[in-house]
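Aim 2, interim progress: modelling of the adenosine monophosphate-bound target.
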Amino acid sequence: MSVDRSVVSPGATIGIIGGGQLGRMTAMAAARLGYRCHVYCPEADCPASQVAAATVAAYEDHRALARFANRVDVVTFEFENIPAESVRVLSRHVTVRPGWHVLETAQDRLIEKPFFNSIDVATAAWRPVLSRSDLESAVAELGRPSVLKTARFGYDGKGQVKIEDATSLDDAWSEMKDAPAILESFVDFEREVSVIVGRGVDGAASCFDVVENRHRHHILDQTIAPAPITPALARRAEEIALRTAETLGLVGLLAVELFVTRDGRLLANEMAPRPHNSGHWTIDACMTDQFEQLVRAVCGLPLGSTRRHSDAVMTNLIGDDANQWLNILRQADARLHLYGKTEARPGRKMGHVTRLIPRKPEVIGEN
Ligand code: AMP
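Predicted structure of the complex, ligand included:
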């Protein structure tokens, strides 16, 4: 009998690049299905290494990467900003899902934006900005307000400057520290939504319900599931995520963040080829959560049902918010998740709480 090499069976070891809370929750979901996990992260005692084996080494350490790759049966990511050469080293020894092409597209806004546009997914108007003089002409074309962002390595609003009437372009450009950047028109959005799609080795794909994301100080504060939008708009958002995943040939998970404009259009902002903070609610409110779906996809298993059995509001616990853990534990509708981080620095994601609103059985049937 031929062995289907695309399938990684329970008992095997999943390698996870990155050691944060996304890796921790992936390892917990994997353990439930009988897998072991081995994380690769640059720091000791990270959230994921508390629940899985760990290799602590730099992402550029090719010998450590090769040793790690030989110890695991498949590799996935909880963090996408790793060098191309490191992914190449991993791929020589083990199956890597999603593949380099997907990570590369998501790592760099100057690849991501034209990719979206090439598959007829609208974005804010944008221009590449590689120099101070590019910035001058881009601002002349797109106008103010607009947003200047570093093309790579930005997260939670880092590496971003809003260009308003009074903003000096010299100051804005110096914030980019000479790195390639992108200028985007400022979108006066009605709300921000996201969709997470899982896609398996066989090309089967399914989305979790579209959610609304509310930010505070550029960091995700709350996710409302489902997003209060029309079913038609939700279907269009899902269609965008499915088309993106399909065109990329994704195996794994992909989150697509979108703006809903005041005139009802959807503009893609960015994608992340991994579990996403806006999918944490699925742990408590769906048949299969995003982390289990990732495990299923990268191990070549059938995808699980993404059916939402409860409505949910997920609130991030940032910095000192996590000190409320005892109060939260006393609330009957609240599910508390803490990430095992010892130091509660301002802006640091320490955990989250999901509050559930159960749906009536007849409503679930209509899903
Ligand atoms: P990003 O790092 O691209 O996810 O941006 C972080 C947050 O900044 C987004 O979630 C939005 O709230 C805001 N933002 C980013 N780009 C734009 C834009 N072009 N127009 C308006 N707000 C934006």
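The radius of gyration is 20 Å. The longest strand covers residues 189-199.
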